[in-house]
Amino acid sequence: MPAISSSAPGKIILCGEHAVVYGQPAIALPISDVQTRCVILAKPNAITRQVLVKDHAFGLDTDLSSLKPEHPIRKTIESVLTELSIDHLPACEVQIHSTIPHSGGLGSSASIAVALTRATANFLGHPLEDIIVNKIAFEIEKLHHRTPSGIDNSVIAYAKPVFYMKDTPIELLKLDHPMVLLIADSGIKGSTAKAVDLVRKRWKSSPIEFEGYFVEIGGIALKIKRLLQTGDLEEIGELLTNNHQLLKEIGVSLPELDHLVDVAIRSGAYGAKLSGGGMGGNVVALVPPDTAAQIRSNLLRSGAAHVLVARISPPARR
Ligand code: PMV
User: Fold this and answer.
1) pTM greater than 0.85
2) What is the pLDDT of residues 22-45, one digit of tens each?
3) What is the pLDDT of residues 152-190, one digit of tens each?
4) pLDDT of res. 225
5) Per the CB 3.0–4.6 Å rule, which of 54, 117, 161, 242 could disulfide with 173?
6) Mutate to test the pocket of ligand 1, among 103, 106, 151, 154 (most ligand atoms within 8 A of CB)
7) Which residue is closest in CA terms to ligand 1's atom 13?
8) Measured distance CA(114)–CA(42) in Å, rounded
């Protein structure tokens, strides 16, 4: 049996994070410059049913059965088996290769869940529909982040821009205009679960104030959704910067993130904001294509650990 391989992209939240946990809309884009690739090699001559798992990024090289039942990798494989009513995987080696930095807001956990779900199902000869892959990845996200909104697994499972609102059907967005985004890594690991907990505590102690922030952030996502169709990048940029200000007010920014946002804007970005859980991780800046290189080098000189240039292109017309 040949090796089976499945890939899944990373993602960036363009706007709406945190408020999306409270039912407001948010927009996320798949980022294929970073990826997870999952390879499964059959071991037809093995004497036992051993399933070996190798994940270089996490230094994992072990038997699947030795992982805790709640380990995301074990849980993902078992969820696929349950979904397909199959009781075990034949002997094999599961390799996970990811270029997505961990705890950086680029969707590493959801990307692994999606790539591993697809590879496992394909290995068993029963490819799963996106909706099922997404359902499994959402359950795995709960192991990582306790109360995820579901945006990360959705944008990664469908590998398309999404306008996402909890408990409503996922809306896939067709972007008609190219955009250049700089994704600047602050080099500080942010814990999404901790950031979400912090916001929840603050919301509980000042519900009216925080609901006001969430509604404002949701309003920005609605406006950006419309502007993505007209391609008004300057206005989108301004709204991204306003979104950053609101994230700062709810307490999930850091001086290092504010600094990168300022540098991007002073260097000519249309707008910039932290992206994802915050308290570390990445800043996303929407930039004019001709000044992207200059803004990128300013960000690197100002403390960004890495800066990815993501070119978002409209789908090719047939
Ligand atoms: O840190 P990330 O990129 O996984 O994004 C988290 C986004 C939040 O809105 C803060 C949480 C969520 O589950 O939507």
Assistant:
1) yes
2) 999 999 999 999 999 999 999 988
3) 999 999 999 999 999 999 999 989 899 999 999 999 998
4) 97
5) 161
6) 151
7) 148
8) 20
Tokens of 45: 């001559």
Question: pLDDT tens digit string along 263-296?
Answer: 999 999 999 999 999 999 999 999 999 999 999 9
Please, is 47 exposed, middle or buried when counting C-beta atoms within 10 Å of its C-beta (0-12, 13-18, 19+)?
Answer: exposed
- Taking CA atoms only, the protein residue closest to ligand 1 atom 4 is 105
Neighbours of 197 (CB within 10 A): 14
Q: Please confirm, yes or no, whether 167 is among the known catalytic residues.
A: no
Q: Which of 33, 87, 152, 197 is catalytic?
A: 152
Cα separation, 3 vs 14, in Å, equals 35
Give the span between the Cα atoms of 243 and 154, in whole angstroms: 22
What are the φ and ψ backbone dihedral angles of 54, each rounded to 5 degrees?
Answer: -125, 120
The minimum-distance atom of ligand 1 relative to the CA of 275 is 3
Contact (CB, 8 A) for 107 and 155: yes
Q: How far apart are the first and last CA of the chain?
A: 35
